[in-house]
Design a protein that fits this description.
By secondary structure, the protein is mainly alpha-helical. The protein has helices at 50-77, 87-123; strands spanning 4-5, 39-40. It has two helices and two strands, in the order E-E-H-H. Strands 1-2 form a two-stranded parallel ribbon. The longest helix has 37 residues, at 87-123. The radius of gyration is 29 Å and the shape is flat.
């Protein structure tokens, strides 16, 4: 009986391919030699570097946080909480959304100020 190795996207319940490392030169052979009548359920190794995946996760978390803060700031600006009938919910949302609006407003002022400074610097006439 041949050795069976489930590689790639195969699941444990799928039909297995008989893995023969000598059959194709572009495939990497199994790192350990499998004995006859042996089944291996190894998948492909994760090729992502741990620092790269941590950076992607951090960037995703920061982007999600910025979207949430921006959404709450916009909700405060448009007074969406004022349209609610329940006073407890209205007060809670207002307490959360007001600092988000102030942060968004200060960020916008900062960006516009330094955008105008950079624009003046590059458009100066000699």
């Amino acid at each position: 009986m041949n050795s069976v190795c489930f590689q790639g996207s195969e699941a444990a319940g799928s039909v297995a391919k008989v893995y023969q490392p000598q059959a194709k030169k572009f495939e990497q052979p199994v790192e350990q030699t499998l004995q006859n009548d042996t089944v291996s359920f190894r998948g492909n190794k994760d090729k992502n570097d741990s620092a790269e995946s941590v950076g992607k996760a951090l960037a995703g978390i920061l982007a999600l946080t910025a979207l949430i803060i921006g959404g709450l700031g916009y909700a405060h600006k448009e007074n969406w909480a004022g349209k609610l009938k329940n006073e407890k919910v209205k007060n809670t949302i207002t307490k959360i959304a007001e600092p988000c609006y102030k942060l968004c407003h200060k960020t916008k002022e900062f960006a516009v100020k330094y955008y105008n400074k950079a624009k003046e610097f590059f458009t100066k006439k000699s």
